[in-house]
Specification:
Length: 297
């Protein structure tokens, strides 16, 4: 029997959502194995209308998609809330893939990821996805190698975040070791088994910066192991802000609320969420200092 994959996608008025959906299904070796859950929060009617048209076409072709569409409300902002909605759409598929709405897939990506995974119940492949952008002919494609990138702590990388670790994406060049234990969960790309589908380790109230460190802590606390897929190939790529040109747009909190409100949510309220959960985690089990787990590659 063909193993199934559930893809979790949150979106905030993201113009890349529709091409990401078509890319995921059309590039899979076995599109019939793909199940998708989408949570779309929209402020622009065009975003909603384009999504509904795309869903109609995809469903007519046999695609299996669950979705939740909500009008934008300031009180609903937060990656944790949107990921929680798509987590609840999970329905027992063999594998789970977490991505953002601005994602590119290579041909046969489904077979590649399943082959890369160890099959161990509590192993999760995760990394900073490679980079993609738009070519002159309007098509999407990797920038540079497009390979997965390893997270590494760099002091002062983001000076405006004082309350959690600063991580940067780091290229690896030695491909002899295919699976490398990794110090953190990367929210833009993660691929695991149904055990992860049943326990995502997600903090629902996370707004932005607290998401990854808290999910890392809860997953490791519950016996999950994180691994970097060290493959010399572009498999899954992400649209990073510096590569947004005329085509391809993804929204930020400041597109909807003032910079002052965004700063409060991301650097004050989110900090309180982070600190309260870390206290709970320390009481459950003394948690290792993963600042010490720096890349040696």
């Amino acid at each position: 029997m063909l193993e199934t994959i559930f893809i979790k996608i949150p979106s905030l008025d993201d113009e890349e959502l529709v091409p990401t959906l078509f890319n995921a299904i059309n590039s899979a070796k076995y599109p019939e194995r793909i199940h998708i859950g989408v949570s779309l929060m929209y402020a622009e009617e065009k975003t909603k209308n384009d999504f509904i048209k795309a869903i109609t076409l995809l469903e007519q072709s046999g695609a299996k998609i669950k979705y939740n569409v909500k009008k934008f409300k300031e009180g609903l902002l937060g990656v944790g809330r949107q990921r929680h909605i798509v987590n609840n759409m999970y329905d027992g598929q063999d594998y789970v893939l977490q991505i953002d709405a601005h994602t590119w897939f290579c041909d046969d990506w489904d077979e590649i990821l399943i082959a890369l995974h160890s099959g161990e119940k509590k192993h999760i492949l995760t990394a900073y996805a490679g980079w993609y952008g738009y070519r002159r002919n309007g098509s999407r494609g990797p920038i540079g190698s497009g390979r997965f990138r390893y997270p590494q702590i760099i002091e002062g990388f983001r000076d405006y975040i004082k309350w959690t670790d600063n991580w940067a994406d780091y290229p690896l060049y030695n491909y002899e070791q295919k699976m490398i234990e990794i110090p953190k969960f990367c929210a833009g790309f993660a691929f695991g088994t149904k055990e992860w589908g049943e326990y995502p380790g997600l903090v629902r109230e996370s707004i932005f910066w607290s998401e990854e460190p808290l999910q890392t802590a809860y997953l490791k606390l519950n016996g999950f192991e994180l691994y970097f897929p060290n493959i010399d190939k572009a498999v899954i790529c992400h649209l990073y802000g510096q590569f947004i040109r005329k085509s391809g747009k993804r929204k930020a909190f400041t597109d909807y609320i003032s910079e002052e409100k965004a700063d409060y949510l991301m650097n004050q309220k989110d900090k309180t969420i982070y600190e309260s959960h870390m206290l709970k985690i320390e009481k459950l089990k003394p948690f290792y200092d993963y600042k010490k787990e720096r890349s040696s590659f």
